[in-house]
Design goal:
- There is one protein chain.
- The protein is mostly helical.
- The protein folds into two domains: 1-95, no CATH class; 167-316, no CATH class.
- Helices cover 50% and strands 1% of the residues.
- A two-stranded antiparallel sheet has the order 1-2.
- A hairpin with a 6-residue loop joins β1 and β2 (16-17).
- α3 (166-201) packs antiparallel against α4 (207-229).
């Protein structure tokens, strides 16, 4: 053009122009004023250049340009630094919302970190609550202070109060266990007394020792009465039950003393099944003891069953 080289570059998009072209085949802009001076409008070409471009519309109208652009398929290669205006390369799309793939990956990684941190914090809180719930268990102190407590006696440190009556139940259990030990000794004495009674009545071979057996039963029951009066936990047991047992042992002591005198009488001249004044005297207190023992076992056996202790009948005591 104008005496220059056979090709040149478009001043608008940098595409290569062939000789004789009036419009750029890439951007569609007119190339007549490609080397024109923006101030003077003259072309900066050898030989004086051409006259300024006529401002009249070209043969190819502006209305035809959109059709040319729509039918044009851009080549795979684009000059560096001059991307086609309005035509992205084939097969590529701009990143949505202006965010790059790297930015989306960083955002996803941050979301995962936040979620894991929330789960870890929840587990720590749950473990702290679970640990605080066991501070007042068996073998531990009744009160426990957390890291944020103000001191003993605060509303958040006191252990739950014991159920109503739990102290009374514990004392009753202690009293019942202690009383069960006394009853076991009384049962042992009862067996020796029955053997001595039958031996005297039949003038048996142990007649010389039967009087001492009755005397020993008296001493033993006197000791049981003393231990019952001072027994720990006795006040937690039914008062009527303790009274019945006390009266039964007192009546048995009186009856055993009469049986001892009867054994002494029979040791001198024994008559099997014979009558004796001391044997008759023992009848009254022995019957009274039977009544009191019956009343006692009626109250004792339910308590013994409750605490898994031995139950008895009146003739065993």
């Amino acid at each position: 053009m104008g005496g220059g080289s056979s090709s040149q570059l478009c001043a608008h998009c940098g595409s290569e122009l062939r000789a004789g072209m009036r419009f750029c085949h890439i951007c569609g802009q007119s190339v007549l004023g490609n080397d024109a001076d923006p101030q003077t409008g003259s072309l900066n070409l050898p030989g004086g250049g051409l006259r300024p471009r006529d401002t009249a519309p070209d043969t190819v109208t502006a209305a035809a340009l959109p059709a040319v652009r729509a039918s044009y398929q851009p080549p795979d290669y684009q000059p560096a630094g001059y991307p086609p205006v309005g035509y992205p390369p084939p097969g590529r799309r701009p990143p949505p919302d202006g965010r790059s793939r790297r930015g989306r990956m960083l955002f996803g990684a941050l979301a995962v970190i936040v979620a894991v941190g929330g789960v870890a914090a929840g587990l720590l809180v749950a473990r702290a609550h679970a640990s605080s719930g066991h501070l007042a268990g068996p073998g531990h102190s009744a009160t426990a202070q957390g890291s944020g407590s103000s001191g003993a006696g605060s509303s958040g440190t006191a252990a739950p109060a014991s159920p109503p009556g739990s102290g009374t139940a514990s004392a009753q259990h202690q009293g019942a266990s202690n009383l069960s030990a006394l009853l076991a000794q009384s049962v042992s004495d009862r067996g020796a007394i029955n053997s001595a009674y039958n031996d005297v009545q039949t003038c048996g071979p142990a007649l010389a020792q039967d009087q001492a057996t009755f005397q020993q039963a008296v001493t033993s029951r006197q000791g049981l009465l003393s231990r019952l009066a001072a027994m720990p936990g006795a006040s937690a047991l039914p008062a009527g039950m303790i009274s019945s047992l006390t009266q039964a042992w007192q009546a048995s002591i009186t009856a055993d003393q009469d049986f001892a005198a009867w054994a002494q009488d029979e040791s001198a001249s024994c008559t099997p099944g014979g009558s004796d004044a001391n044997l008759a005297a023992a009848t009254g207190p022995d019957d009274q003891a039977t009544q009191d023992k019956t009343a006692f076992v009626g109250s004792w056996n339910p308590i013994a069953q409750q605490y898994d202790l031995p139950a008895y009948s009146q003739d065993q005591l």
